[in-house]
């Protein structure tokens, strides 16, 4: 086996929460606010249900092939060459996704904190750290994440709770009447796709020490992430009101700048920076690891470590050339990226599941 | 500096840009040499030829994507096909 590590269910839940939370926390609120205004929390609720469906789909599919990742069981289901094509598409998707995440990481650092620094500086730094983590294997960055995630969650809660004196819950009214159903459903698409990153479970499940608990892992990770994001969204909305929340690129950052308690506790951007750097590093490591492991399994290599640095170079190069500016990135993430990602998160797994059901149980299990 | 004629300024700027590019390209090549130095000897020693081939192919793709960017050329637009393919759906998502 390529990857010798085994992780517990709790570690897997932590990993899946860190995988969705940091980027969603910073990048998503404005896009939802643009579409669903004060009813964005209904969109998020819908998105949690959609993500639970995606999670059920992926886990059900993976558990049919114990000990195999999606890159291997695609071949079992579809036959050798069609399976290779599907696995290749997934590797491309993971690499492309990781390039976008890396670009988000760099863009945030540049546009929010260090506008004079070239974006490549942050991207190289985080890629080198992630490459080191990936080379050391799954267990290493899982354990790092076990330390970081509680701090990240504490930061998110502290920031939101310090804002309570400024909130006005009337800004969430009227519920539903202003918008109607269509904007709310449109607003649900982006969060469902971001929660749908849980599809990485298809790579992770063989490395759980209790694979049977995978349903519980995927569901609890989605519910935890969903409730934190709903809490944070309601908080932003009650703070700004729908029009202002739409205007910011990073509402979660700007609301920290508002915190001022007794003229003493203010300028808490460092907390958000911590959430972003720590969470972003873990998130990039997960996708990086999945892409490298997938490439090694696709080429039937004995070891994935030699591929870590070359894949990192490709991810870095793609992330730099993907967009001209943060606005291009933002438009892409809020529009064309969504249907593209849905194909990989829901359509292909659904087709694979149908094909697997039609073929019935196979002898090739081990 | 401000007394210089414009054409001379342009030429200076261009030379500076070229110098910068050649400096950057040296850095990039150094980085690639470092990656090869890290990985390749171990693979050769362990006779893992398949892994070495995969490593080289990925690294060559990486070089092909990186080196043109040093000269300010984007080799291709990774998102252009996605944007064209999903344009109608994307337009729907732009407005509430």
What oligomeric arrangement do these chains adopt? Answer: heterodimer
N-to-C order of helices and strands of chain B: HHHH
Mean pLDDT of chain A: 88
Give the name of the CATH architecture of chain A. Answer: Up-down Bundle
Major sheet attributes of chain A: 2 strands, antiparallel
- Gross morphology of chain B is flat
Helix content of chain B: over 70%
Number of strands of chain A: 2
Q: Outline the low-pLDDT stretches of chain B.
A: none
Q: Estimate the mean pLDDT confidence of chain B.
A: 86
* Unreliable residue stretches of chain A: none
Number of domains of chain B: 1
Overall domain count of chain A:
1
| Helix amount of chain A | over 70%
Largest sheet of chain B: none
Please provide a written account of the structure:
The complex is a heterodimer of chains A (366) and B (96). Chain A has 366 residues and is an all-alpha fold. Chain A has 15 helices and 2 strands. In chain A, a hairpin with a 3-residue loop joins strand 1 (260-261) and strand 2 (265-266). In chain A, helix 1 runs antiparallel to helix 7 (181-195). Helix content of chain B is 79%, strand content 0%. The longest helix of chain B has 40 residues, at 6-45. Chain A binds chain B through residues 34-37, 96, 99, 179, 182-183, 186-187, 189-190, 295-296, 299-303, 306-307, 309-311, 313-314, 316-318, 320-323, 332, 334-340, and chain B through 32, 35, 38-39, 43, 48, 50-52, 54-55, 58-59, 61-63, 65-66, 69, 74-79, 82-83, 85-87, 89-94, 96.
């Amino acid at each position: 086996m390529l990857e010798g590590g085994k992780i517990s269910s709790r570690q897997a839940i932590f990993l899946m929460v860190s995988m969705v939370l940091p980027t969603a926390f910073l990048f998503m609120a404005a896009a939802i606010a643009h579409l669903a205004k004060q009813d964005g929390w209904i969109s998020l609720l819908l998105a949690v249900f959609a993500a639970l469906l995606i999670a059920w789909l992926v886990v059900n599919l993976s558990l049919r092939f114990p000990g195999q990742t999606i890159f291997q069981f695609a071949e079992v289901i579809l036959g050798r060459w069609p399976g290779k094509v599907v696995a290749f598409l997934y590797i491309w998707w993971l690499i492309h996704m990781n390039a976008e995440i890396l670009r988000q990481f760099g863009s945030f650092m540049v546009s929010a904190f260090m506008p004079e620094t070239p974006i490549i500086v942050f991207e190289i730094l985080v890629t080198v750290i992630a490459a080191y983590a990936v080379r050391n294997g799954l267990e290493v960055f899982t354990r790092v994440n076990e330390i970081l995630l509680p701090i990240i969650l504490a930061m998110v809660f502290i920031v939101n709770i310090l804002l309570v004196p400024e909130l006005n819950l009337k800004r969430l009214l009227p519920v539903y009447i202003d918008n109607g159903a269509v904007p709310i459903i449109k607003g649900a698409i982006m969060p469902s796709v971001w929660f749908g990153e849980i599809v990485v479970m298809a790579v992770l499940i063989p490395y759980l020490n209790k694979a049977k608990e995978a349903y519980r892992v995927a569901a609890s990770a989605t519910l935890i992430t969903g409730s934190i994001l709903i809490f944070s969204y309601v908080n932003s909305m009650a703070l700004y009101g729908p029009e202002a929340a739409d205007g910011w690129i990073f509402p979660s950052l700007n609301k920290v700048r508002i915190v001022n308690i007794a003229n003493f506790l203010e300028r808490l951007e460092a907390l958000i920076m911590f959430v972003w750097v720590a969470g972003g590093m873990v998130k990039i490591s997960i996708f990086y690891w999945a892409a490298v492991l997938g490439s090694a399994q696709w080429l039937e290599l004995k070891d994935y470590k030699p591929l870590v640095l070359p894949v990192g170079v490709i991810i870095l190069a793609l992330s730099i050339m993907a967009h001209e500016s943060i606005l291009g990135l933002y438009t892409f993430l809020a529009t064309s990226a969504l249907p593209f990602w849905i194909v990989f998160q829901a359509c292909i797994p659904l087709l694979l599941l149908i094909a697997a059901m039609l073929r019935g149980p196979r002898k090739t299990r081990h | 500096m401000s007394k210089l004629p414009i054409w001379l300024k342009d030429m200076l700027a261009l030379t500076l840009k070229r110098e910068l590019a050649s400096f950057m390209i040296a850095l990039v090549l150094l980085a690639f040499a470092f990656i090869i130095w890290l990985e390749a000897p171990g693979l050769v020693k362990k006779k893992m030829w398949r892994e070495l081939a995969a490593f080289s192919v990925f690294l060559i793709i990486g070089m092909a994507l990186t080196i043109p960017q040093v000269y300010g050329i984007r080799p291709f637009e990774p998102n252009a096909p996605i944007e064209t393919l999903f344009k109608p759906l994307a337009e729907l998502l732009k407005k509430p």
